[in-house]
Amino acid sequence: MRLKLAKKIGFCFGVRRAVEMAEKVLKKEGRAYSLGSIIHNKQVVESLSKKGLEVIKSIDEADGGIVVISSHGISPDVAGEISRRSLKLADTTCPFVRNAQKTARSLGEDGYTVIIVGDVDHPEVKALYDFAGRCAHVVKDASGLKALKLKPGERIGILSQTTQSMDNFLGVVKAITGTKPKSLKVFNTICKDAQMRQAAARDISREVELMLVVGGKNSANTKRLFEVCKKILPKSYLVETEDDLKVKWFKGVSVAGITSGASTPDIIVRRVAKVVKSSAECGKERKVANSTWQKRRTASK
């Protein structure tokens, strides 16, 4: 079985930056708090936890020291609360997310109805909503616009969670255009890395018989990659580590593809690839051995 590995695997720039910043803080301070998971990868979070990074759900759980903000960013209110409590702040917000926050704030201040395309429960989207102000709405896709009952003549601004798929974002833009707003501002805030990974995943999915997407099951960008692959190739699977692989998936498969989410360490991707390759080699050796045994058995009769 041949393997096709995406050119872009492992951490994206923003995730690598966040992890390196957290490690630098821990090296200096010895311990720190993380308001929510610094990135959405279980293995990385556990590794940082062993080094002294304690994940908390609320600022109320911090009893002093330094708070590391995740790469997904935080709302202005939370930042203000951290400052009022005289806690030190290490802000690892991804630059692409920060750009989206500035866009949301600008649209809100200019009086636009702000539509954010994304997952309503995701920390990045929650922060974007707060930056946009009271006239903001979050929609998962174009179907979510029905509940908003947008009226002709409204001034609307659209932006996206940075890990959304371009197809989904454009679908919302097209649907809003159909409502005939008085003014429409569209900002593509999907990060370039996410776009490149999705494009590469589409290409590989058309060239293979099975696709593996490696990453955290709570990672938005990984789930988006999986959706992109699954749409093209039904035989696509999301795995966190090599432990999630199942032998039956590869039966009859001659070529498989592997890609990864932006918060997945490249070492995990390479471990998955190694297990798949070794399993394929073992299967080949078993076939050869069985064939030889069968020939010997036939000859002995």
Protein model, in words:
The chain is flat, with a radius of gyration of 23 Å. The chain is an alpha/beta fold. The protein has helices at 13-29, 42-50, 76-84, 95-109, 123-132, 166-177, 192-205, 220-232, 266-300, and strands at 2-5, 32-35, 53-56, 66-69, 88-91, 113-117, 136-139, 155-160, 183-186, 210-214, 236-239, 255-260. α4 packs parallel to α5 (123-132) and α7 (192-205) packs parallel to α8. The protein has three domains: 2-9 and 193-289, 4-hydroxy-3-methylbut-2-enyl diphosphate reductase, catalytic domain (Cobalt-precorrin-4 Transmethylase, domain 1, 3-Layer(aba) Sandwich); 13-93, Rossmann fold; 96-190, 3-Layer(aba) Sandwich (Cobalt-precorrin-4 Transmethylase, domain 1), CATH 3.40.1010. The strands form three sheets. The protein has a four-stranded parallel β-sheet, with helices on both faces. A four-stranded parallel β-sheet has the order 3-2-4-5.
- The helix content is 40-55%
Radius of gyration, whole Å: 23 Å
> Numbering strands along the chain, what is their spatial order in the largest sheet?
1-12-10-11
Mass-distribution shape: flat
The topology string of helices and strands comes to EHEHEEHEHEHEEHEHEHEEH
The fraction of residues assigned to DSSP E strands is 15-25%
Structural class: alpha/beta
- Could you tell me the number of beta strands? 12
Features of the shown structure:
Cobalt-precorrin-4 Transmethylase, domain 1; 18% strand; four-stranded parallel beta sheet; disordered C terminus; 3 domains; 9 helices; Rossmann fold
